[in-house]
TrEMBL record, chain A:
Residues 244-300 form the 4Fe-4S Mo/W bis-MGD-type domain. InterPro entries: 2Fe-2S_ferredoxin-like_sf, 2Fe-2S_ferredoxin-type, Asp_de-COase-like_dom_sf, MoPterin_dinucl-bd_dom, Mopterin_OxRdtase, Mopterin_OxRdtase_4Fe-4S_dom, NADH_UbQ_OxRdtase_75kDa_su_CS, NADH_UbQ_OxRdtase_ferredoxin. The keyword Membrane applies. Its EC number is 7.1.1.-. It catalyses: a quinone + NADH + 5 H(+)(in) = a quinol + NAD(+) + 4 H(+)(out). SMART domains: Molybdop_Fe4S4 (SM00926), NADH-G_4Fe-4S_3 (SM00929). NDH-1 shuttles electrons from NADH, via FMN and iron-sulfur (Fe-S) centers, to quinones in the respiratory chain. Couples the redox reaction to proton translocation (for every two electrons transferred, four hydrogen ions are translocated across the cytoplasmic membrane), and thus conserves the redox energy in a proton gradient. Its cofactor is [2Fe-2S] cluster; [4Fe-4S] cluster. Binds 1 [2Fe-2S] cluster per subunit. This is NADH-quinone oxidoreductase. It comes from Nakamurella leprariae. The keyword Disulfide bond does not apply. It is found in: Membrane.
């Protein structure tokens, strides 16, 4: 946006300078405006403060001129255009004279008549319409519309409402055919499930009867609908705008950190909307962020502390008693062998800091790890820890980190172990925007081309799970001779190799990449060889912040290496206590040490054992621990086994901040401060006092203040202090020696898979993608199955039968499954996880059946 | 308030301009000077009993006070008394839970929560009904803006004005207390629409009302 050049009054003798280069000069309502070439008249008018009424126009969608509400009078070269023009499709031109409704009776009459036309068939059901009170059509009718209808005939009537998906209801009578929803679905989300049907007065929005509106982004169409045609099933008739208290918040579901507006009424959240943040989520968010907030009010919310009594039963206790019991037990466990801390990845930055400080100061140990995922952390996490320390920690916008906006301007992006649509949907939207507007080239290393990759017009570099490092290594080479790649794949590889060398190219690495030995090292090598930059995208909202504030076995707050004496000295000076100098254990190491008796206690935050590679082993470890303190919002498998359970606040009940994958702080206010739940920083601070140490994390503000005083640590010094990537565990990939029916499993968690944070929202669950087994066409043919036929995948722990979805392109030696089926992790079904060999059989095999 | 109702004593208008009051005995020309004794020796010996004259005169006039609560007077027919949520002739609620009354209320006395009518449980014609409806009579100022705002003539005001209580909780009236009683031919919701589809309820409302009145008149005869 350029500055408005309103002509300064005075100095008539001075000739005004011409418009700046690339700009044109036009007159709107008698005001001279310099506008960049190609700008729309409606935007140029906005900049001088003239709001031209509109329904179909949206700054992030392509212009369409469908509603005809923005008609203005336009004059070019002294001649008026014969009819009023739509300001939302008319681009500016030099010497153009525009007269809006403010200065032209013709434009004013045209807009007034158009409003009357739009209202012809619009029902008078504002009292029962969810948009009532925040409806652009209602507002404009009140401001400029006719007070009475001249229509004497009956209005057009449709059956209403019809569900276009489980969470979106369509009321066709109210629709003014502005096509915002269809344009959003086609242009932004790429899910063209909703479109215009029929002609003339029967024209309407509709879906293919066999294909409901199963988009992860469909909720945005409710928000941008300028009338009440698309409404939310979850918010239906819940409240009026004047009932609601709006709080600016940040989404707690993934690492994108979308800005949201959370509306609450009478102590409960009624809905969440995407807020406008051009640097992160623009004006969009995903359906999970929009609809998944009902987990707060599930019946298993913990409301008061629980302490295990002498009979081994968990009983409600006062905070005082619970704190005393927890402190006593933790002190004993600390002296008996040590206590490990697993804060989980859902923590806010300050809460993670409280965990990190609690582990070092109260428990005198570096045994703390935020990482919770269903793939094992390999080799004591050395490869990943080194990668995170060298490439991730301490970086952010302006500090060498990749940002959403830089993704938009990148020439090429390579996705490694990362499926953006499922794992960070706003990254997906940004990539898609860049693909559409700037021709960004997207590449993915993986076993199959997903629908998300197709929507990004992306290119798959096929790799059997486990062989990705070799594919990345091959990118720095040219030619086709030395690999077994086909012609097309080799061409794609060469194209990518060249693209990655151009300035601004990005490697987006998901947390799953750590599961493949050598892959993160290969990413680093590739980045160093090509100059491409690295963005690390974890799954959970708190992961990045937890890494930054030292909830990690080898790093202290600010990315200070535990092994660096100078870094430790800085932290010791700030905390006033010695900091243990031996690096701690990672998540797997902590659980194994507890199981083997090397550690005797555990402090566990929001960790669901089902999210770990071996839930059974994790629960065994929790059982084996002599003392367990659990800080949870809802009863879980861990709280059942804990000795002291401390109820804590969920994200909407406390203020705080997340750090998103970019390294950007995403602060949020408490939506429901009145419920009076304590955040983890406060609980741990009090627990610390009981254990005779001071954490100074009583409030998020206090903790943030201390973090600020502690400051950062130069990323280069972190990188220098960490050993260069050591010997990488390399063995033959699982694909060696497979029979044709043995395949390597590849898997990740879809956005909607029945996780605990989507509980209590059946409308949202209804838009989850169907659970399928993905096989290549050749594999399906070899098995003799067609699309939709049942296929059984057998692992060491059992079998799982799901319908097959034939996917191309896909490696023939790979099979894909969602990482959770029927609300249970894959390990519970087949006893193994991604990266391992499984057997695939046609038909419903012997074993447990899904569903 | 210059006009007086019959039976009420003539009220003496406020004498703003210092004009002599037309009715009543003439006042002494000079106002008593502060400090001088009111009972001057020139007063008549009948003065002590003169006051009883007023008493005797009033005894033969109609009483001004009301015999409340034994014999309460009916207020004017448009008196703003407590609210009522009306019903359609088949017993379905007219309230659609639109919250316009709550929106209009200057005292924030009304709380409404809408919900979805389903085929199994229908409380009003159309899609929406009021799941929760409360009026807080501690706050209500009886202005009647809510009934003006009501798009379905569901909310009206009755002439009932006995709204005092000694407990705050009881002054929050809930939907079951505000709903009009079931008249003849009405059926306790939830039940399906008995009088046609949603349009019929609004388009043919006056006819339904006439039918209902005829029926009630017939029933009473």
């Amino acid at each position: 946006m350029t500055q408005v050049a309103t002509p300064p009054a005075g100095t008539p003798e001075q000739e005004p300078p011409g418009p700046p280069p690339g700009h044109v000069r036009l007159t709107i309502d008698g005001v001279q405006v310099d506008a960049p070439k190609g700008e729309l008249v409606i935007r140029a008018a906005e900049r001088i403060g003239t709001a031209i009424p509109r329904f179909c126009d949206h700054p992030l969608l392509d212009p369409v001129g469908a509603c005809r509400q923005c008609l203005v009078e336009v004059e070019m070269g002294g001649r008026k255009m014969p009819k009023p023009q739509a300001a939302c499709t008319q681009t500016v031109a030099d010497g153009m004279v525009v007269n809006t409704q403010l200065s032209s009776p013709v434009a004013e009459q045209a807009q007034r008549s158009n409003l009357e036309f739009l209202l012809l068939n619009h029902p008078l059901d504002c009292p029962i319409c969810d948009k009532g009170g925040e409806c652009p059509l209602q507002n404009q009718t009140l401001a400029n519309g006719p007070s009475a209808s001249r229509l004497r005939d009956p209005k057009r009537v449709f059956t209403k409402p019809i569900p276009v998906s489980t969470q979106i209801l369509l009321d066709r009578e109210r629709c003014v055919l502005c096509q915002r929803c269809t344009r959003f679905s086609a242009q932004i989300a790429g899910d063209r499930f909703i479109d215009l049907l029929e002609r003339g007065s029967a024209q309407q929005i509709g879906i293919n009867r066999t294909e409901p509106f199963q988009s992860y982004f469909s909720g945005n169409t409710i928000q941008i609908c300028p009338v009440g045609a698309l409404t939310s099933a979850a918010y239906r008739f819940r409240a009026r705008p004047f009932d609601l208290v709006s709080t600016p918040t940040t989404c707690e579901h993934c690492a994108s950190g979308c800005s949201l507006r959370t509306d609450s009424r009478a102590g409960g959240i009624t809905r969440r909307l995407a807020a406008d943040d051009p640097q992160v989520n623009e004006e969009w968010n995903c359906d999970k962020g929009r609809f998944a907030f009902t987990y707060l009010r599930q019946g298993d919310r913990l409301t008061q502390p629980l302490v295990r009594n002498a009979d081994g039963m968990l009983r409600p206790a006062s905070w005082t008693d619970a704190m005393a019991a927890a402190a006593r037990g933790l002190l004993q466990a600390r002296d008996a062998g040590g206590v490990g801390v697993l804060p989980g990845g859902r923590v806010s930055v300050t809460d993670a800091y409280a965990y990190a400080k609690f582990a070092r100061v109260a428990l005198r140990s570096n045994d703390i790890d935020f990482r919770v995922r269903d793939t094992p952390v390999l080799d004591n996490g050395a490869e990943e820890a080194g990668f995170l320390a060298r490439r991730v920690v301490g970086r952010g916008p302006g500090r060498g980190g990749v940002t959403h906006q830089e993704l938009e301007h990148a020439p090429a992006v390579l996705l490694v172990g990362f499926e953006p649509e499922d794992e960070s949907p706003i990254v997906f939207l940004r990539l898609r925007k860049a693909v559409r507007s700037r021709g960004l080239a997207v590449f993915a290393v993986g076993a199959l081309a997903t629908r998300g990759l197709e929507k990004l017009d992306g290119t798959l570099l096929p790799a059997t799970p486990g062989t990705e490092p070799a594919v990345l290594a091959g990118l720095t080479r040219e030619g086709t001779a030395d690999t077994g790649l086909g012609e097309a794949a080799a061409a794609a590889r060469n194209r990518l190799g060249a693209a990655l060398r151009s300035a601004g190219a990005v490697l987006l690495v998901g947390e799953r990449a750590a599961a493949v030995p050598g892959l993160l090292t290969a990413v680093e090598t590739l980045a160093d060889a090509t100059g491409a930059r690295i963005g690390w995208v974890p799954r959970r909202a708190g992961d990045r912040g937890a890494l930054e504030v030292g909830a990690f076995p080898t790093l202290l707050p600010g990315g200070r290496p535990v092994t660096d004496a100078a870094a430790r000295a800085e932290v010791e000076a700030a905390w006033g206590v010695p900091v243990p100098e031996t690096p701690g254990r990672d998540t797997g190491g902590i659980l194994a040490a507890v199981r083997d008796g090397d550690l005797s206690g555990l402090v566990i935050g929001g960790v669901d054992p089902a999210d770990l590679p071996d839930p059974g082993a994790a629960l065994t470890a929790v059982t084996a621990a002599s003392f367990v303190v659990s800080l949870e919002i809802r009863a879980s498998a861990v709280t059942e086994l804990a000795d002291v359970v401390l109820p804590v606040a969920a994200a909407p009940e406390k203020p705080g901040a997340f750090m998103n994958w970019e390294g950007r702080m995403r602060p949020f206010a408490a939506v429901l401060p009145e419920v009076g739940r304590l955040d983890e920083g406060r609980v741990l601070d009090t627990l610390g006092v009981e254990m005779d140490v001071d954490l100074y994390t009583q409030t998020p503000a206090a903790a943030a203040g201390e973090l600020g005083r502690l400051g950062g640590w130069p990323a280069e010094r972190t990188a220098a202090a960490i050993d260069p990537a050591g010997p990488v565990r390399s063995g033959p990939p699982e694909s060696h020696g497979l029979t044709p029916h043995d395949k390597v499993l590849t898997s990740w968690r879809p956005l909607l898979d029945g996780g605990r944070m989507t509980d209590g929202e059946p409308a949202l669950a209804g838009t989850a993608r169907p659970e399928v087994v993905r096989l290549s066409a050749a594999s399906a043919q070899a098995l003799g199955v067609v699309d939709g036929a049942p296929v059984t995948v057998r692992g060491p722990g059992g079998g799982l039968t799901l319908p097959v979805a034939v996917t191309e392109p896909m490696r023939t030696d790979a099979v894909w499954l969602p990482a959770r089926v029927g609300g249970r992790p894959l390990s519970a079904w087949i006893g193994t996880s991604a990266g391992h060999a499984v057997r695939v059989m046609a038909g419903a095999g012997i074993g447990r059946e899904a569903r | 308030m210059s006009e007086s109702e019959p039976g009420l004593p003539e009220r003496v208008p406020d004498d703003w301009a210092g004009q002599p009051v037309p009715a009543g005995p003439p006042e002494p020309a000079t106002a008593p000077v502060p400090g001088t004794p009111l009972a001057s020796p020139s007063n008549s010996p009948l003065d002590p009993v003169k006051g009883f004259g007023v008493t005797f005169r009033t005894m033969f006039k109609p009483v001004v006070t009301e015999d409340y609560p034994r014999n309460p007077r009916p207020p004017a027919s448009r008196y703003h008394g407590r609210h009522q949520l009306n019903r359609h002739p088949d017993g379905l609620e007219k309230c659609v839970g639109c919250e316009l009354c709550a929106w209009a209320c200057p005292a924030d006395a009304i709380f409404v929560e809408g919900a979805d009518n389903t085929e199994e449980a229908r409380f009003s014609p159309g899609e929406r009904y009021a799941k929760n409806y409360q009026i807080n009579y501690l706050r209500c100022i009886g202005c009647g803006l809510c009934i003006e705002a009501c798009p379905t003539r569901s909310l009206t005001m009755t002439n009932e004005y006995e709204l005092a209580d000694d407990e705050r909780q009881r002054l929050i009236w809930t939907k079951d207390m505000l709903l009009a009683p079931l008249a003849d031919g009405m059926e306790q919701p939830p039940h399906p629409m008995r009088l046609g589809d949603e349009q019929d309820y609004y388009a043919n409302g006056p006819d339904f009302l006439r039918d209902l009145e005829t029926r009630q008149a017939g029933g009473a005869r």
